[in-house]
Amino acid sequence: MRNTNEMPCPRFELEWTKDGKDWNKRICTYSLVIPLGEFDVRREDQDGNNVRTEVKAELGKTSVRSSDYKAPIWDDGTVQMPYRDGCHAIFDRKALGGHIPIVAICGDVFSVADEDS
Questions:
Q1: Contacts for 80 with CB less than 8 Å, ≥ 6 apart
Q2: How far apart are CA 69 and CA 26, in angstroms?
Q3: Less CB within 10 Å around the terminal CB: N or C of the chain?
Q4: Rounded distance between C-alpha atoms, residue 77 and residue 79, angstroms
Q5: Residue 113 · residue 103 · CB < 8 Å
Q6: CA 19, 33, 59, 79 torsion: positive or negative?
């Protein structure tokens, strides 16, 4: 399973999931992920256990239908960036100072986009 401790935080996140049994129908959820501080009550579940270190704010979704039944991962192992929400992430990063990384995720694979993207 993917270890979120390996990913930068805060980050703009583009996460691909299947919308059915195959990857030809898929959804990419675009979110802003922020870290939760040690005393942030949002870390706790209903029983008061610290279970989360981050919180996601969904900013958009892209639905894709394709004739390609493979996961949206390029041959070099990097995760594909959806065009529309990928552009939104670039615009949003610039609007917030240009330093928040953009991460694309598919299953257990993730890629950090170039800063020039």
A1: 16, 72, 73, 74, 104, 106
A2: 10
A3: N
A4: 7
A5: yes
A6: negative
| Continuous segment of H or E residues that includes residue 33 | strand 25-35
What is the pLDDT at residue 114? 81
pLDDT digits (tens, 9 = 90+) for 19-62: 988 899 999 999 999 999 888 888 877 787 778 889 999 999 99
Q: What is the mean pLDDT of the chain?
A: 89
Name beta bridge partners: 1.
Answer: none
When pLDDT is averaged across residues 10-19 and rounded to a whole number, the result is 96
Task: For residue 92, count CB atoms less than 10 angstroms from its CB and return exposed for 0-12, middle for 13-18, buried for 19 or more.
Answer: middle
Kindly state the tokens that stand for 101: 């990384």
Which residues are CB-contacts of 113 (< 8 A; sequence separation ≥ 6)? Answer: 81, 86, 89, 101, 102, 103, 104
Q: Give this prediction's pTM.
A: 0.85
pLDDT of residue 2: 53
| Mean pLDDT, rounded, for 7-17 | 95
Q: Where are the domains of the chain?
A: 4-112
* 30: its two tokens: 């675009």
